[in-house]
Specification:
Elements lengths: L6 H11 L7 H46 L5 E9 L5 E9 L5 H23 L3 E9 L2 H6 L5 E6 L5 E4 L1 H8 L10 H25 L13 E3 L4 E5 L13 E5 L4 E10 L2 E9 L7 E6 H5 L7 H26 L3 H14 L4
Parallel strand pairs: 2-3
Antiparallel strand pairs: 1-2, 3-4, 4-5, 6-9, 7-8, 7-11, 9-10, 10-11
Helix pairs in contact: 1-2, 2-3, 6-8, 6-9
């Protein structure tokens, strides 16, 4: 391609060299100064015009890129963007939610276009090359919180070719049509799955609260406490404040006996607990009163028996709570087991 000077400069030079009239030395010098000043002015104008054309071309190219990105077959929503590192060593990680039904082709196009756009933006802002780009695509905010349930991922180091991976299980879930099972749609089964996991966590939390390690926290009905040493139980069938009037005898409870609180009352300025005592060796339960002072020195520390008691109670509560779930959705325990397996296999979010 031949480089040409702008027509204005060519015309100026032509006029400058064609002259037939003799001139004095001073006149010639003055005309030369004016002539070359005009030449410099025209050159500056030409350079400015070329720069303006270049900017226009760059802006138009950027506009075309943005238009292409907006025409991408897969729309998305930005969740967050993390930028770290010094200029030249900058790394950026993004998490996005893709909001439509997708194919590998559309996701690939979206991630590639997004990566190109991000690189151009960050390198323009920092004035240095971007070292690493990581993009994670999810199908919902719930999946974002689970982190492992990503749909597609792009990683690019420097100017190397971007590597794109897909989570086949998540793609399969998108492609599969919702089906009815046990009279429930897939969305309803997901709801059962989430409620089931919530109930199990609640049962464990409540079981732990019912087995306080500190006897001073033994003050709520249905709480249980395992004795660590022999403790006197005043037998009384009646739940009356005047426990001494109804006393029918006393027994010495052996260590590992579990007492379940029914209620508490105050006598002579301190709490007394009306409890049911369950023997660790299979003897019949006893009902009566225990002085809170007798428990004060029995601070417990977590041991195998403690955790076993909590797990046993958690299982009991879990079984009880599941009945409410079965009644709510009109399903059986067998159906519940199938939903549990389905949720694990499909990695439904909790």
């Amino acid at each position: 391609m031949t480089n040409r000077l702008p027509p204005a400069i060519m015309q100026y030079l032509k006029c400058s060299v064609i002259t037939t009239q003799p001139v004095s030395k001073n006149t010639y010098t003055m005309k030369a100064i004016i002539r070359y000043s005009g030449l410099l002015l025209i050159l500056w104008a030409s350079v400015w015009n070329l720069h303006a054309q270049t900017e226009s071309s760059v802006s138009f190219s950027s506009f075309q890129h943005n238009q292409a990105l907006n025409r991408s077959p897969t729309s998305y929503q930005m969740v967050d963007e993390t930028l770290e590192g010094e200029p030249g060593q900058t790394k950026i990680a993004l998490r996005i939610i893709v909001s439509e039904k997708h194919s590998k082709e559309s996701l690939t196009l979206l991630l590639q276009q997004l990566s190109t756009s991000i690189r151009a933006r960050i390198e323009f802002q920092t004035g240095a090359p971007l070292q690493n780009i990581v993009i994670w695509a999810y199908i919902s905010k719930t999946h974002v919180h689970s982190q492992a349930l990503w749909l597609a991922n792009l990683e690019q180091v420097g100017n190397s070719k971007a590597v794109i991976r897909f989570n086949e299980l998540q793609l399969q879930e998108l492609r599969s049509l919702p089906e009815q099972r046990f009279g429930l749609s897939e969305e309803q089964r997901k709801q059962v799955w989430q409620e089931l996991n919530t109930l199990q966590a609640t049962a464990k939390k409540e079981a732990t609260a019912r087995y306080p390690l500190d006897p001073s926290n033994f003050k709520h009905a249905e709480q249980r406490f395992q004795l660590s040493k022999r403790t006197t139980l005043i037998l009384a069938e009646a739940e009356t404040p005047d426990l001494l009037a109804d006393m029918t005898g006393a027994v010495s409870l052996i260590p590992q006996t579990v007492i379940t609180l029914r209620h508490s009352t105050h006598l002579k300025g301190r709490p007394w607990h009306y409890v049911e005592a369950s023997s660790p060796i299979g003897e019949p339960s006893e009902i009566g009163w225990i002085d809170s002072l007798a428990l004060a020195s029995q601070m417990r520390f977590p041991d195998e028996a403690y955790y076993k008691n909590i797990q046993t109670l958690a299982d009991e509560l879990d079984f009880e709570y599941k009945f409410g779930l079965l009644e709510k959705y009109q399903i059986s325990f067998r159906h519940l087991d199938h939903i549990l397996i389905e949720g694990v296999f499909k990695k439904w979010p909790l």
